[in-house]
Amino acid sequence: MKNCFICLLLLSLCIIVASRCPDSQFDDWKEYSGYCYFFSERSTSWQAAKDTCAGDGGYLADILSKEENDWISRRLNTYNDELHYYIGATDRQHEGDFVWENSGDALQYTNWREGEPNQWEGYPENCVEMKVEDGQWNDVPCDDILRFICKLPVTRK
User: Fold this and answer.
1) Are the CB atoms for 109 and 63 separated by under 8 Å?
2) Dihedral in degrees, nearest 10, Cα atoms 13, 17, 23, 26
3) What is the pLDDT of residues 116-146, one digit of tens each?
4) Domain contains 32
């Protein structure tokens, strides 16, 4: 009887502190390491993507470690799609100084493709995409029409 009480108590505590990502009829939010991630199915500009994420209480994803980058890359590979995804890195304020838009922090972890960032052919490339095929990053013009990844901390219920 005592063991049943302890099991019920532990189960109750788990339910009370259950983590939660936003409700979605399409199950688009995925949880990883204390954060929720939304992988868009529609394409838009970087600013519109940023605004969409903010409207859901989040921000364009900042990627802070190789483990996080690898998890996101594996998730993107499940979509069998060739479209790339905006993340929250930008150098719009100061050319060449990439920061995370949500915090303003300089990028500590990066996963640039060889030769990136590069302002290809002199065009301003102030936003960052993650390549679906390998999870590497590339700087692109902010008005490119891409999919995007939102991020927000898990809420406790």
Assistant:
1) yes
2) -70
3) 999 877 789 999 999 999 999 999 999 999 9
4) yes
Indicate which CATH number applies to the domain containing 60: 3.10.100.10
Torsion from C-alpha of 77, 118, 91, 130, nearest 10 degrees: 0
Mention every residue, 6+ apart, whose C-beta is less than 8 A from residue 89.
62, 63, 98, 99, 100, 101, 107, 127, 128, 137
Residue with tokens 């390998």: 134
- DSSP lists the bridge partners of residue 76 as none
The closest of 32, 29, 40 to 64, measured between CA atoms, is: 32
Domain of residue 40: give its range. Answer: 21-156
Among 6-10, 19-23, 62-66, the least confident range: 6-10
Instruction: Give the position of tokens 């493709």.
Output: 113
Residue 4 domain-assigned? no
Q: Looking up tokens 């502190």, which residue turns up?
A: 17
Domain membership of residue 47 (yes or no) is yes
112 found inside a domain: yes
What are the structure tokens assigned to 90, written together?
């930008």
Indicate the number of domains in the chain.
Answer: 1
